[in-house]
Automatic annotation (TrEMBL):
Cellular compartment(s): Cell membrane
Protein known as: NitT/TauT family transport system permease protein
Topological category with respect to the lipid bilayer: Multi-pass membrane protein
Taxon lineage: Bacteria, Pseudomonadati, Verrucomicrobiota, Verrucomicrobiia, Verrucomicrobiales
PANTHER family: ABC TRANSPORTER PERMEASE PROTEIN MJ0413-RELATED, ALKANE SULFONATE ABC TRANSPORTER-RELATED, MEMBRANE SUBUNIT
Pfam families per UniProt: BPD_transp_1 (PF00528)
Signal peptide residue numbers: none
A cellular component term, taken from the record's GO annotations: plasma membrane
Region Disordered: start-end pairs: 478-501
Transmembrane stretches, start-end: 31-52, 252-272, 284-303, 310-328, 366-385, 405-424, 444-460
Family statement drawn from the similarity comment of this UniProt entry: Belongs to the binding-protein-dependent transport system permease family.
UniProt-listed InterPro entries: MetI-like, MetI-like_sf
UniProt keyword Zinc-finger, yes or no: no
Length: 501
């Protein structure tokens, strides 16, 4: 048989991208989901690294001069037309000091003036971790660091002194090596900088955000700083410790709301009595802003974690009760009618029909309500003693340190997203009849999760069935059958004579 007679190969049907109420295949769905995250990241990258911003000098080592009216500190960003004259003014001061030394009549300076020169080394030493923030005015310790750098015992790696400043460090070391502070004027370190850009204060490049996030996760002691108005150094807490505090607050507040809202919502959606008793006031109460109860909650529960948990509860519970009641009412009435036809009583209607019937929708309602609970976290953690991720967002935000703020915000968003995705995947395994398509991975997970409990339940049922098995009595011999009575003879039938017409 020739090849001309072979049937044509069937062409694969490709679903269009834009089809009304049609689901995309797994590959397209995953690609679009990835793209939804990549696009905002690309916008952030382009906005941060695009050629839109002017190059600036971010001061790393600063100095003071009588000829410079402004005082600059490390971290300030200066345009080139300001930074270059700043350097030249310091070089001019150093030239006057050096000229006086060479002439044999060195300029005199007070100990306070020379200590201010030594403190120029503080930003460098802090970046290397040789000193802490509390050592900014520890002149003896900073002089020791200066001498170690001059001798080569300590080599800076993060803020490397320029060749010009290396000479100045060694020149001053001869005067600083004595037991007392020198009376001769010291040479000043020439201001150093690194390239920065005139971003808006709120636009922090991605690399700086991720680097700061990693440093906050490690929780370096040198990053610690006393918070305004408090004695504890709250900034010393690692980011993960704060994250655990926020998770505890949101979890306990949501669980408390769910434990109360689920049974009350089912009752309100099932019985009109509970609906009229609970829903009107709950509907009224949910329009009251939950933060307005903050002062009351602090008066009742104190200033620690309890008022924070209760604020999450107050913000979540009213909405949860009304949503669950509405979900219960939306159950198909024909299911209840069919159960009643089969003889179900009131208790069986609730336990065998209503609760199993609303479980998939109730599960999705709880997924949405978790997101509602997260929206109350930031407000809740401001009550009493600030704690958790909100402490970073509030404290650092007021200082315009957005490189610390954005990691905390991203952690909240990522936690909510991955929690929702996991619960959605888990729900497809728990309620496969409520979704289209097959989810074998979720089903296998559910089977593995419920395997041992299922064996235990089956064993209990088998044992209870064996215990309730009826015992039969011993076989009793049958009594001999009595003789059957003889049938009575039938009466004779007399034929009726025929009448011939």
């Amino acid at each position: 048989m020739g090849s001309d007679h072979l049937p044509p190969e069937p062409q694969k049907h490709r679903e269009p991208w834009f089809a009304v109420r049609k689901d995309l295949d797994g590959t397209r769905s995953s690609a679009l989901m990835t793209l939804s995250f990549v696009l905002p990241l690309l916008v952030w990258i382009v906005a941060s690294y695009g050629p839109f911003w002017k190059a600036l000098h971010e001061v790393q080592i600063s100095a003071e001069s009588p000829s410079v009216a402004s005082v600059y500190v490390p971290g300030d960003r200066l345009a080139p037309e300001y930074f270059t004259p700043f350097q030249e003014a310091i070089r001019k001061d150093n030239a006057a000091v050096q000229t006086a030394r060479d002439s044999g009549a060195p300029l005199e300076a007070t100990a306070r003036q020379n200590k201010k020169v030594v403190r120029q080394i503080f930003p460098l030493a802090l970046a290397e971790g040789w000193v802490g923030k509390e050592d900014e005015a520890n002149d003896d310790k900073l002089r020791t660091v200066w001498l170690k750098i001059a001798s080569g015992e300590s080599v800076p790696q993060k803020v490397v002194p320029s060749a010009e400043n290396e000479k100045i460090i060694k020149a001053n070391a001869t005067l600083l090596a004595g037991a007392e502070w020198p009376t001769q004027a010291l040479l000043k370190l020439v201001p150093q900088s690194r390239v920065s850009y005139d971003y808006p204060v709120y636009l922090v490049p991605p690399h700086k955000v991720f680097a700061t996030a990693w440093a906050d996760i490690k929780g370096k002691p040198e990053d610690a700083g006393a918070e305004e108005g408090t004695e504890n150094k709250s900034d010393a807490k690692p980011l993960l410790v704060r994250y655990q505090e926020s998770l505890r607050t949101i979890s306990l507040g949501f669980l408390l709301a769910a434990v109360l809202a689920i049974p009350l919502g089912i009752l309100a959606g099932t019985y009109s009595v509970f609906s009229r008793l609970l829903e009107p006031f709950t509907d009224f109460f949910r329009y009251m802003p939950a933060p307005t109860f903050g002062v009351v909650l602090m008066a009742i529960f104190g200033l620690e974690a309890a008022p924070k948990i209760m604020l999450v509860f107050i913000g979540t519970f009213p909405t949860a009760l009304l949503v669950i009641a509405n979900t219960t009412r939306q159950l198909d009435v024909s299911l209840l009618e069919a159960a009643q036809t089969l003889g179900a009583n009131q208790k069986q209607l609730v336990t065998r029909v209503i609760i199993p019937g609303i479980m998939p929708t109730l599960y999705n309602d709880l997924r949405i309500l978790i997101g509602c609970a997260w929206t109350w976290l930031v407000i809740a953690e401001l009550l009493g003693f600030k704690s958790g991720l909100t402490e970073i967002i509030d404290t650092r935000g007021r200082r315009f340190q957005f490189e610390h703020v954005y990691p905390a915000i991203l952690m909240i968003g990522l936690t909510g997203f991955f929690t929702d995705q996991f619960l959605g995947w888990l729900g497809r395994g728990l309620f496969p009849w409520a979704v289209r398509g097959h989810t074998p991975s979720a089903r296998w997970f559910i089977r593995a999760l419920t395997f041992l409990p299922g064996l235990a339940v089956a064993g209990i049922r088998k044992a209870s069935a064996y215990a309730e098995k009826p015992t039969f009595p011993a076989v009793v011999p049958a009594e001999p059958a009595s003789a059957a009575p003889e049938p009575s003879p039938l009466p004779a039938v007399t034929p009726t004579p025929r009448t011939t017409l």
